[in-house]
Design a protein that fits this description.
With about 375 residues, the protein is α+β, with helices and mostly antiparallel strands. It folds into three domains: about 60 residues, 2-Layer Sandwich (Alpha-Beta Plaits); about 130 residues, no CATH class; about 100 residues, Alpha-Beta Plaits (2-Layer Sandwich), CATH 3.30.70. It has 13 helices and 15 strands. The strands form five sheets. It has a five-stranded mixed β-sheet. It has a four-stranded antiparallel β-sheet with strand order 11-12-14-15. A hairpin with a 4-residue loop joins β11 and β12. It is elongated, with a radius of gyration of 27 Å.
């Protein structure tokens, strides 16, 4: 019985892995090592053959969950929502504070996607009971891993959309515990009979449990797609928010380096980079709201012509392309106008013919 109990505890502690979402399943040359780099127990193992988890070393901290940009790693975590002054509040408790009754975990394991989904659902306040990260046996998180850094980045994005920010507050453990124990407030009304009183008490207990749901890791979406786009006209602002908005991840093609191979547009799992063509023109269309910063486009680009910037403005949405025909093989191909401007010459060969000397394959048979 003891072995079964220990096994259940171990399985509950371990994160769930969706291998089909991992960037290493998309391209073999992926440089991603986010889960390996963030793990304080060195439980993640990455080599040339595979990516795996040492279940004996993993302590279930969950820091690998927000580190994975594709949502390939998930973990069942309690999401405690309370109401105070008609405001929905997310309660997060640090496990080293000694708050046992709240089933506390590492607060830094809450991802950007979790915060954005909660914000979308009306949770604009976070109350944290936080311990001293310097005293944590796992060590203090770096600046990119910390919860308050994620909240700060999201607030930067919200301000540029003229939306209310997320309010982050750190509370003393006794005040935090008091708020955690507070059930939903009953609406004022006439005096109740004893039977109705107990019915109301039971209902409040059930409601309190229902307000302890789980972070939904299966409902994955690029963080830029979770919040709706806000149009300038809706609020009367002069600046166009669509053209002056911050996104969690922004793909950028350096046209002077790009050779128009289309590898990035074919490989992107979320169509953050698309090749668009009509009868008259063609271009690369970049949608920063769809980018997850998986860096597949960066890893696959042989020309080093792509970069992905975090929490930045979108410099350009389109890269115009020159459509032409290869003088060697006759195939149609394209490349950015800026590439031509940088070299002061018009390309005449497609990407394949420019790399292969077809003359070497020619020979003459003499009698």
């Amino acid at each position: 019985m003891g072995n079964i109990s220990q096994k259940l505890k171990t399985e509950f502690r371990l994160p769930d892995i969706n291998g089909e979402r991992c960037v290493h399943a998309f391209i073999e040359q992926s440089s991603c090592s986010a889960c390996v780099d963030v793990c304080p127990q060195n439980a993640w193992i990455l080599d040339d053959e595979s990516l795996g988890l040492n279940t004996e070393s993993c302590d279930g901290c969950g820091l690998c969950v927000p580190a994975c940009t594709e949502g390939a790693i998930s973990q069942t975590r309690e999401c405690v929502i309370r109401e105070e002054d008609n405001k929905k509040i997310l309660l997060l408790g640090c496990e080293i504070t000694g708050l046992k009754q709240a089933n506390c975990h590492c607060i830094h394991a809450v991802s950007e996607n979790d915060l954005l989904k909660l914000y979308r659902d009306g949770v604009h306040h976070i109350h944290v009971a936080r311990g001293d990260c310097q005293q944590c046996p796992r060590g203090a998180p770096n600046n990119t891993e910390a919860l308050f850094k994620r909240v700060s980045n999201i607030n930067k994005m919200l301000r540029h959309r003229h939306l209310a920010p997320i309010h982050y507050n750190e509370l003393a453990t006794d005040r935090w515990t008091q708020l955690w124990k507070t059930p939903e407030k009953a609406a004022p009304g006439p005096q109740m009979s004893r039977r109705n009183f107990f019915r109301r008490a039971i209902k409040q207990s059930v409601d309190m449990v229902l307000h302890q749901s789980n972070f939904d890791q299966n409902d994955f979406a690029p963080p830029g797609k979770i919040l709706p786009e806000v149009k300038a006209d809706d609020h009367g602002y002069d600046s166009k928010i669509d053209n002056d908005a911050i996104y969690p991840a922004v793909p950028h093609i350096m046209a002077a380096k790009c050779d128009g191979c289309d590898a990035c547009s074919r490989a992107c799992p979320h169509q953050a980079i698309q090749f668009v063509q009509d009868e008259n023109a063609s271009c690369y269309l970049m949608d920063a709201s769809a980018c997850t910063a998986c860096n597949i486009c960066v890893d696959i680009c042989e020309q080093d012509a792509i970069e992905v910037n975090r929490w930045a403005f979108q410099k350009a949405k389109t890269i115009p392309l020159e459509n032409t025909t290869c003088h060697s093989c006759g195939a149609a191909f394209h490349y950015p106008f800026e590439h031509e401007a940088q070299t002061d010459t018009r390309r005449t060969l497609c990407n394949i013919c420019s790399k292969i000397d077809h003359q070497k394959n020619l020979f003459q048979v003499l009698d």
